[in-house]
Amino acid sequence: MIKSGITYSKKFSGMMASLTAFVCGALIFARSATFDLDLLIHGLSIIIPAAIIVGYLGFQIGKIFDVPRKKRSLNSMLKNKK
């Protein structure tokens, strides 16, 4: 894992959660002609769980990229086959 700075898991999590909240909010609020309390509560009841779920998925994807890859040489691969 990367010791300094923001890790990929946090970057992907934040990016995907904010993008989901923006897209869902734009779609929900653009479909309505009026902006009232019922629309706001309905929209937030969809946006908040969607952003949390997609943010968690982004966190898991980022954890995959945080794991350092070990480069194996050809000699070590040939030794393991024997």
Model description:
There is one protein chain. With about 80 residues, the protein is mainly α. The chain has one domain (about 10-80). About 75% of the residues lie in helices and about 0% in strands. The chain is built from three helices and no strands. The protein has helices at about 10-30, 35-65, 75-80. Helix 1 (about 10-30) packs antiparallel against helix 2 (about 35-65). The protein is rod-shaped. The protein starts with 7 loop residues before the first helix and ends with a helix.
**Strand percent estimate:** under 5%
Helix share bin: over 70%
- Global shape: rod-shaped
Which spans of ≥5 residues are poorly predicted at pLDDT below 50?
Answer: none
Distance between the termini: 32 Å
Average pLDDT rating: 83
For the CA atoms, what is the radius of gyration? 21 Å
Largest sheet properties: none
One letter per element, helices H and strands E, the order comes to HHH
**How many E-type strands?**
0
Structural class: mainly alpha
Number of domains: 1
How many helical stretches?
3
